Amino acid sequence: MEQDKKKFDDIIIGRNPVLEALKSNRPIINIMIAKGRETSFAHIIALAKKQDIVIKEVDSKKLDYMTGSAVHQGICAVCAVKEYSSVDDILKIAENRGEAPFIIILDEIEDPHNLGAIIRTAECAGAHGVIVKKRHSAGLSFTVNKASAGALEYMAVARVTNISDTIDYLKEKGVWIFGADMDGEDYLKCDFSGSVALVIGNEGKGISRLVRSKCDVIASLPQRGKINSLNASVAAGILMYRVVRFR
């Protein structure tokens, strides 16, 4: 029973609790509203949009499940289990350690298990932080925390609106950007020394065209099997530990 309760610890239930969470600027991944109830929550929706929070219309049964059959009034908010950091926070961590920045940028990683696994490997590999996108990406949910095996507690995660703009900012700070994608340079021939950011793309689509164009180098893993792609977290792990060899 305790396990079931813990599963829903990152859920805020009901109109007033959700509204107060928005007013307090608590980090919210998304807000779920029962279909057909949008007009009842117009004020909450307007406030959420100002904060660039995703609104999802779902079946009432989905809300029943998400809230453990509590009285949800047709609305709940899925909150991050940890406060997000900023990109500057991540750069400061590297500076405080006296190390060149080592950052993981995730371009629309949607599977929370993949996100958790990447955070876990990033922490083990000594990365200074992970950057995720606000929309079309998994948030710091209980599932992500569990998949990270506790690594989330020690890893700074920044959430940004635009990955391309963030890459431009990191380049200004002297960070070299490596995108993981096909038809690039063999990763074993890449020079990962110095300040490095690895860009890992969406599980199905890979890195977006614009983000790819912003990368300094496209690093590719050899494919000798019958399928043409690796799981995102596996590819990220291989590349992260290649970076470690240069540090």
What does this structure look like?
Helix 7 links the parallel strand 6 and strand 7. 36% of the residues lie in helices and 23% in strands. The protein is built from 10 helices and 10 strands. It is elongated, with a radius of gyration of 19 Å. A 6-stranded parallel sheet has the order 7-6-5-9-8-10, sandwiched between helices. The protein starts with a helix and ends with a helix. The N terminus is likely disordered. The chain has 247 residues and is α/β, with parallel strands linked by helices. It has 2 domains: 72 residues, 60s Ribosomal Protein L30, Chain: A (2-Layer Sandwich), CATH 3.30.1330; 158 residues, 3-Layer(aba) Sandwich (Alpha/beta knot), CATH 3.40.1280. Helix 6 runs parallel beside helix 10.
Key structural traits:
247 residues; alpha/beta; 60s Ribosomal Protein L30, Chain: A; Alpha/beta knot; six-stranded parallel sheet; four-stranded mixed sheet; disordered N terminus
